[in-house]
Amino acid sequence: MGELKMVYKKIEEILPYENNPRNNDEAVDAVAESIQEFGFKIPIVISGDNVVVAGHTRIKAAKKLGMKEVPCIVADDLNEEQIRAFRLADNKSAEIATWDEEKLEQELAQIMSIDMSLFGFDGEESDFADEITDDKYTFNTNIPQYEITGEQPTIDEMLDEEKSKQLISEIEKAEGITEEERRFLIQAARRHNVFNYRNIAEYYAHATQEMQRLMEKSALVIIDMDNAIANGYAALFSDVLDVMEGEEDA
Fold first, then answer.
1. From CA 139, how far away is CA 248, in angstroms rounded?
2. How many Å apart are CA 178 and CA 113, to the nearest integer?
3. Residue 130 carries which DSSP code?
4. pLDDT tens digits along 32-71
5. Rounded to an integer, what distance in angstroms lies between the CA atom of residue 80 and that of residue 57?
6. Cα–Cα distances in Å, from 243 out to 130, 225, 237?
7. Can you list the domains of the chain with their CATH numbers?
8. Contact 23, 56 (CB under 8 A)
9. Cα 87 from Cα 53, distance rounded (Å)
10. SS3 8
């Protein structure tokens, strides 16, 4: 296996592959949003003569963002046939992978301050997706029906604390930090807790009225969308609010 060669190239020096069989124009906006949010984390793969092997969409996104240069990996250890094969394999292998819907739902539920729809997650991935009706002032939401479908899960089955506990243990043993810093880090480590919302829904269906009330207030389940928004489960995007305020002022 050859040694990777990382270089920065001016965008005008990088040549798209003329016979690229992949149609990627519809993905450019999402990739551009990703670069803006997270930075240019995945280099372009180019041949020894600066032709794109993998990364046509990222190049288009970089141009859209007005970038002047991008990180590249030079695949000059591959012959022409290998480059052709890799170019196809890189795109095809992504099509083979599938989503674990339950884990995807858990991950999306942990992301509260980043609009994932910018990256192609349109809300259909979640059982709690909103549906907007023709009434321009009304948001109708398909609220899940919390009915008993099986045995009540245990508390441990609703919450995976393994990663946070490992991190907290490391923080508690750490030297060279103040107690105030230690308390802060311990609180931050709890962000690594992972909730299993399917089991939470089942637990809710079995729970006492008081437990249900507190679970609703903790935004673990949705019963009333207005309350869910107030409790931090859902966020109304500013552009939607601006549109509605504009209509009221008209």
1. 16
2. 29
3. E
4. 999 988 999 999 999 999 999 999 999 999 999 999 999 9
5. 21
6. 18, 20, 10
7. 6-96 (3.90.1530.10), 104-249 (no CATH)
8. no
9. 5
10. strand
d(CA 246, CA 250): 6
Q: Residue 71: name the closest of 51, 45, 106 by CA.
A: 45
Q: How many Å apart are CA 248 and CA 98, to the nearest integer?
A: 44
Per-residue tokens: 188: 């931050």
Residues 146-176: tens digit of each pLDDT = 677 788 999 989 888 888 999 999 999 999 9
How many residues comprise the chain? 250
Per-residue pLDDT of 88-123, as tens digits, reads 988 788 778 888 888 888 888 888 778 888 888 865
Contact assessment for residue 129 and residue 223, using Cβ atoms and an 8 Å cutoff? no
Q: What is the distance between the alpha carbons of residues 50 and 5, in angstroms, rounded to a whole number?
A: 13
Residues β-bridged to residue 160: 194
Inter-residue contact 148 to 205 (CB < 8 Å)? yes
Cα 15 to Cα 76: distance, rounded to the nearest angstrom: 15
Which runs of consecutive H residues, i.e. helices, occur in the chain? 28-38, 56-64, 80-96, 101-109, 155-158, 162-173, 179-189, 197-206, 209-217, 225-230, 238-249
- Among candidates 85, 88, 83, 93, which has minimal Cα distance to 20? 88
Yes or no: say if 27 and 79 are a contact pair by the CB < 8 Å rule.
no
pTM for the structure as a whole: 0.48
Going by DSSP bridges, is the β-strand pair 44-46/139-141 parallel, antiparallel, or unpaired? unpaired
Contact call for residues 236 and 227 (beta carbons, < 8 A): no
> 75 near 38, Cβ under 8 Å?
no
Helix (H) or strand (E) holding 70, with range, is strand 69-74
- CA dist., res. 153 & res. 149, Å (int): 11
